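Please check what follows.
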Amino acid sequence: MSPPEEPAPDDGAEPAPHSGGLSDRDRAVLALERRTWPGPGAKERAVREQLGITPTRYYQLLNALLDDPRALAHDPVTVNRLRRVRDARRGRR
C-alpha cells in the first residue's frame, strides 16, 4: 500500500468523499475555520500552503459548506458560528 498523496492544487475536480460524506478538503476547510489567527494574512497564507488553493476559492468552498448538512453534522459549533456571522453580514446589507 502506498502512502497517502499530498492534496493537489484545486483543478476544479471534486475530491473523493471520506467515510463521513465530507471530502478530506472539506474537513480541512472546517479545521482551518476552527483556528484563531494572529493577524492579517496568516489565514490566507495557511490556505495557500495547506490546501493549495486561493483564498477566494477557499471562501467559496466554505460558503457552500455552511449550507451542507454533512458539514453541520461534522462540526456543528463551527458551522453554526459561521452561519450566524454570515447572516449578520447579510442583514447589514
